[in-house]
Amino acid sequence: MATDLKSVLGAKVRAGRESAGLSQEQLAERINRTPETISNIERGKTMPAIETLQALCSALGLRLAELFADEDLGRDVGRVAREHRVVLTLRTLSESDLEVAQKTIEALANRQ
Questions:
Q1: Are residues 3 and 76 in contact, defined by beta-carbon separation less than 8 angstroms?
Q2: What residues does the HTH cro/C1-type domain cover (predicted)?
């Protein structure tokens, strides 16, 4: 399924929330919004205000710019979310584990 900006942003917020181990209710509480607001953002139903985006990024350790990556528009939302989860996971690794992950990913990408 091709995606628009709201869907891509929502998929990335959901991936960030899940990577952080938070429920929608917990995230909503952290940023002083309702769980319904979080749900609507994650499902691509609404475009959050900049203040909400900043609060989400702060709560989830995301960068505002990565929520708006042009290359993700029109791509499958599931793939965008999985790639984003990988990036978030990589950020948590030690340098030595990151090197192992890099080599593993490169080996997977190069297999024919």
A1: yes
A2: 13-67
- The model's pTM: 0.73
For 53, the token pair is: 């985006």
Q: What is the pLDDT of residues 63-86, one digit of tens each?
A: 888 887 766 667 777 888 888 889
Buried residues in 70-93 as b, exposed as e (16+ CB within 10 A):
eebeebebeebbebbbeebeeeee
For 52, list phi and psi in degrees, rounded to 5: -70, -40
Q: What's the DSSP call for residue 47?
A: P
Range of the domain at 90: 5-110
* Distance of alpha carbon 26 from alpha carbon 34, whole angstroms: 10
Q: What is the CATH number of the domain that holds 64?
A: 1.10.260.40
Which three-class secondary structure state does DSSP give residue 79? helix
Q: Which of 6, 2, 13, 7 is nearest to 38 (CA)?
A: 13
